[in-house]
Amino acid sequence: MTFSVHGLPVARGIAIGRAVLVASSRVDVAHYFIEPDQVEAEIERVRRGRNAVVDELQRLQHDMPKDAPPELTALLDVHLMLMQDETLTGGVKHWIKERLYNAEWALTTQLEMIARQFDEMEDEYLRERKADLEQVVERVLRHMKGAASPVVAALPRPRRQQDLLLEDTMDVPLVLVAHDLSPADMLQFKQSVFAGFVTDVGGRTSHTAIVARSLDIPAVVGARGASQLIRQDDWLIIDGDAGVVIVAPSPIILAEYGFKQRQGELERERLSRLRHTPAVTLDGQRIELLANIEMPEDAGGALKAGAVGVGLFRSEFLFMGRQGRLPDEDEQYLAYRRAVEGMEGLPVTIRTVDVGADKPLDETRHDDAHLNPALGLRAIRWSLADPAMFLTQLRAILRAAGHGQVHLLIPMLAHGSEIRQTLALLDQARAELDQRGMAYGPLKLGAMIEIPAAALTLKLFLKYFDFLSIGTNDLIQYTLAIDRADESVAHLYDPLHPAVLRLVADTISECNARGKHVSVCGEMAGDIGFTRLLLGMGLRSFSMHPAQILAVKQEVLRADTVKLRAWSERVLDAEDPAALLDAAAEARPPSARGHSLP
C-alpha cells in the first residue's frame, strides 16, 4: 500500500530506489552500582572505549578519499574534538567515583547533562551538534560492548541478504533509511552506493543535511518514524524539494517521479553550465552572489559553486564544545587564514563569534537566570562582556586580513554605545599588534541588521559602518516575537509578513541611497521564491549556502529589475504579500519556475 512520510527538505532532487534500513543505533545500557574497589577498572573501561573511537576516527581521516566533501572532514574534526573534551570524560569519572555508577551508566548520565545545554541553545546549527555528541558517546558504548557500527551491519551483502536480491539487481539504486547517521558512519560505505537519505531526526543544519547538500544527494530529515514505517527493500521515492518520502509507490507514481527525476537531472546540468556565467540581470544589473560557510574547508565548495566571495563566515565552530578552553589567537588566526587563502583573493566576511547565554560554552557559563536566552547575553553583548576573549578574536582576524580581503561583521548590534565599544576594542586590538610588531591588514567593517531597533536606526549604523548585512532569520524572529525553534508557534514564523518585508526593503533602500553596500545573508537569500522580490527591492548582493548559488543565479539571469521594481512595491503594500508572490509564480512559464530547485 502506498503511503507518504513528511520531513524537512534539506538537499534537492528526486531519488528512487530500494530501502536499506539501518537498525536503531541506540545501544542497550545496563544500569547497576559497582563496588568501591571496581572504580579504577570501570574508568579504564571507558578510557579504552574512548581511545578506540579516537583511533577509529583518526584512521577514517587518514583514509579519507581525496574527493570526499570538506564537510565530512570538518565534521569528523568536531567528533574528535568532542571525544577529547575533558568535560565529557571528567564528568564520567565523577559519576563513577562519587555515585559508583557502572561505566555505561556514567557515560549516558554525563551525556544527558551536556545534552540539556545543547537543547537550550537558540542557534539551530549549534543545537544540532547535540546529535554529534550523542553519536560519539554511542560509538564508545559500542566499542565497550564489542558491537559493530549499525551502518556496517546494514550494508547489503548479496549472498547473505536474500531479500535484497542484489545478485540480480546490482543496478537498482539504494536509499538509506536510518534514525540518524554520523559522519563516520557515512564513510563506512562508498559514497556512490546510496542515491538518497532519509532520517527520523535532524534539522536543516544537521550533519546529515550538510553532507547530503555537499554531495548533492536528495535527502529528507526529521521524517519522524520513517525507520519504523519503512521496511527493508521497500521501493521509495525521496522528493528532496518537497520533503516527502513516498513508500511503495504505484507504477503510475513511479513513472511520474521518474520523469521528474530526469527533468531535475537536466535542470542541474543546465545550472552547472552557469558556474562561470556572470550574474547579470536582463537590464544589465550586476548581482553579487556570495557563500555562507561554517568552516575554513568550505571555501573550496564556495569557489566550485561559483561564489564571488564569502558573505558570512560563522566563526562559532571554533568555539563550540570546548567547555571553557577557548581557542587562542594563533589557532583562530590559522583558521581564518585558511579560509581567506582558500578563496584565492576573493573577499571573506568573518562574523565575530555569535554565542552567549543561550549557547553556553561550558557549565560554568550557564546561568538559569536567563529566562529568555534569545533576548539575553549573546552575540556582541557576550563579546563586550568578555573583552579579553573579544580582543583575542579581533587580533586574529586582523592578522588574517594580511593575507587577503577580509571584512569584519558584528552581530546583534542595537545601541550606539555597543557600536562605540566595539570600535574602541578594534582600535585597541590594532594597537596591541603594533606593540608586538605583528603584521595585519585593513578591514572593512560591517554590522548585522537582525534586530528591529537596528533596522529603525539605520542612520546611526551607516555613520559608523562600511556595509550592512541583513540577517533575515533573526530579524523575522524578533520582529514577530516567534521562537522558530518552538514547534507550537513555528507556523507563525513568516518571512512574508508585511512588517518584515518593510524592514528589509527600507534597509536596502537607505543603504542604496547612501551609497553603502548591503547584502542579505539569511535563508531568504538562498530561496529562489524570494529572489525576484529582493531584486525588485534593490538588493544587489545575496549570501547563501553554496549549493543554492546556481539556482539563484538562474533567477537573476531571467530577471529585469526595472519591471520588478513596481511589482515589489505592490507586494510591500499588500495585505497578503504571499498571495501576490504565488500569483506571480503561477503566471510564469513552467520552465522558469524552478520546480526542481531548492
Task: Bin the strand percentage.
Answer: 5-15%
Strand element count: 16
Biggest sheet layout: 8 strands, mixed
Number of domains: 3
Brief write-up:
By secondary structure, this protein is of the alpha/beta class. The protein is built from 25 helices and 16 strands.
Can you tell me about this structure?
With 598 residues, this protein is of the alpha/beta class. It folds into three domains: 3-21 and 152-250, Glucose Oxidase, domain 1, CATH 3.50.30.10; 36-146, Enzyme I, Chain A, domain 2 (Orthogonal Bundle); 278-592, Phosphoenolpyruvate-binding domains (TIM Barrel), CATH 3.20.20.60. 47% of the residues lie in helices and 13% in strands. The chain contains 25 helices and 16 strands. The strands form two sheets. It has an eight-stranded mixed β-sheet with strand order 1-8-7-3-4-5-6-2. Strands 15-14-13-12-11-10-9-16 form an eight-stranded parallel β-sheet. It is globular. The two termini are 29 Å apart. The model is unreliable at 152-170, 362-369 and 593-598 (pLDDT under 50).
Descriptive tags:
598 residues, alpha/beta, Glucose Oxidase, domain 1, Enzyme I, Chain A, domain 2, 3 domains, eight-stranded parallel sheet, 47% helix
Please outline the helices and strands.
Blueprint: E1 3-6, E2 8-11, E3 14-21, H1 39-62, H2 70-83, H3 86-99, H4 103-119, H5 124-127, H6 129-145, H7 150-154, E4 174-178, H8 183-186, E5 194-199, H9 207-215, E6 219-221, H10 226-229, E7 235-239, E8 244-247, H11 251-272, E9 288-293, H12 298-304, E10 310-314, H13 329-342, E11 348-351, H14 380-385, H15 387-400, E12 406-410, H16 416-436, E13 443-449, H17 452-455, H18 458-464, E14 467-470, H19 472-480, H20 498-514, E15 517-520, H21 523-526, H22 528-537, E16 541-544, H23 549-558, H24 561-573, H25 577-587
Parallel strand pairs: 3-4, 4-5, 5-6, 9-10, 9-16, 10-11, 11-12, 12-13, 13-14, 14-15
Antiparallel strand pairs: 1-8, 2-6, 3-7, 7-8
